[in-house]
Description:
By secondary structure, chain A is mostly helical. Helices cover 76% and strands 0% of the residues of chain A. Chain A starts with a helix and ends with a helix. The radius of gyration of chain B is 25 Å and the shape is elongated. Chain B has a 6-stranded mixed β-sheet, with helices on both faces. By secondary structure, chain B is of the alpha+beta class.
Amino acid sequence: MSAVEQAQAEPGPEAALARPADRPDRSPAARRRRRVRALTYAVAVLLSLFVLVPIYFITVTAFTPREVSYDFPKPFIPGTVSAETVRFFADSTGVTAALWRSVVVAALTLVLSTLLGAPAGYALARFAFRGKSTYRLLILSTRAFPIVILSIPLAVTFITWGIYDTTYSVALMHTGLALPFTILITSSIFVSVPRDLEEAARTLGCTPLGAFVKVVLPLALPGLAAAAIFTFVLSWNEVFAAVILTLRQRTLPALVLAALNTSPLPFRFAAAWFMLAPSLVVIFVIRRYLLGLWGRVAR
Amino acid sequence: MAEIRLEGVSKVFDKTVAVDDVQLHVADGEFMVLLGPSGCGKTTLLRLLAGLEYPNGGRVRIGDTDVTDLPPRKRDLAMVFQSYAVFPHLTVFDNIAFGLRMRKVDRAKVHERVERAATLVELGDLLGRYPAQLSGGQRQRVAVARAIVMEPAVLLMDEPLSNLDALLRLTFRAQLKQLVAELKTTTIYVTHDQVEALSLGNRIAVMNKGRIIQCDTPGTVYGEPASRFVGAFIGNPPMNFLTGRVHRNGGPPSVTVADHVLQVAAELDGEPDGEVLVGIRAENIRAEVEPFPDALQARTRVVEPLGSHLLITADVGEQPIKITAPADFPAHPNRELWLRFDPAKVRMFRPS
């Protein structure tokens, strides 16, 4: 808001009321600006509610006793809080193992896709090579095929290779799915680190690798961390490939999906909460890291 | 300390020739300025010297070493970048110490040398700050300190003043000149600013289209430009160029401009009869408001008072000419003007 606008807004509602109604005190442009702003806020609030209300009810129901979770309509403020429902879910057969597998798969995916994707991103950011733009396009092509189509031949291949129904095969698949994002995100992170800094380091005695480690990496780290965490969430939430590629070695989403139709309502809410919570935490972390990155690179 | 030799160095990007067969010898301790318009290859030449680019042909020697194929870290040089390239994640101290630590200089020594370099560029009390907390001028000083602390054989500077505001640039220019003179380091300095080049260099290499057109002292480059390009690029206003003719008529050769015979000291014997470009700087023309014997007649078009002097734009026949005159000179637009050229300062160029 400009200073002039603020000064105009200063008198407040009393002043506006004091003016004769037939003489509009503000220009049509100012009125329109205010209307647009009000509309923007309204839309933003609606969108936020659309996302937040289900999250709220999932959380509330997951932390109320099992009898209460059947109540309808739901009270907005829960009467009794208990971890009973969540514990019931956590104690169910296979849940702990699936949770652990999910963590392993996501961690593996994170490590693999960063190790493979960050160098590719760096190459895209720094080097001019033949077919660069084609390469950039090809990276995205794996996402152009629906997983449904990719999964069946993959499952067949994995069976013939003897890695079907293992945690690693799911991690490999997730790495494949995450790589396009990792490469493109890390490439834009590396682009944001000025080339001059790397060259300055090289004139000051660094090898190209030394310059990368001492100058580029510290500056890119917040962004790389954000990209890695994003990959983690991607793998954590991925269900289709996990269902197709495993039978007994199910990850949490795959297990939940399989059990969903045959489970009681409290179980479903608890499961939903288990899926939701890590993603939320991670998104908050990413947000902070992203702000940190911008704050530092902005000069 | 070391001399630098560039022997037939060329660099081609795709199909553009950025540096074209450049020969250059920079003496030990000399301050050499590479001057030219943007895209003339001066920065590429500097980067070839630094080892940030490798030439397609020719050799680069620093001191007794052929460094053509060596990476930057093995060339014993330091560089100041146009963008300063100060590391944002390190404090001023760590920035300046960066190169020394890479060389594994021991702790106490690093401390001592960083302090000394920082004091030289008047950064002594800012060592704990991060670059984001510094002004542009201070960041610039960090970049200079980071380079000189290495005590390199060769100091390379790529337009280090171009991102500073005008006043700061003027102050820093003098400080930089003094600093480099005290260090006696062989320095190569790239700029597109002809005033900067004249004020700083022991010699100036004027570049255009990847080639060095003229390499000489500031006085010579200014007073005796080797080509029309150099004369027009250096000096403000640029050198005047008038089309004239060389005549012999059986006798000794003479030059006429707008049907007027010019007095020139330049050697004309070698000049063939025909068209010639007469170059003369604005301050080497004496203007008179009254008719003067042997003076070239002109008509005043614009008079611009510039405080210390007047800048007059006049027409000699159809050709424009710029003249400087004392601030109290009675010049008026659309009046006749009589011009006398200092014969010793007139230069002849072949029309291109």
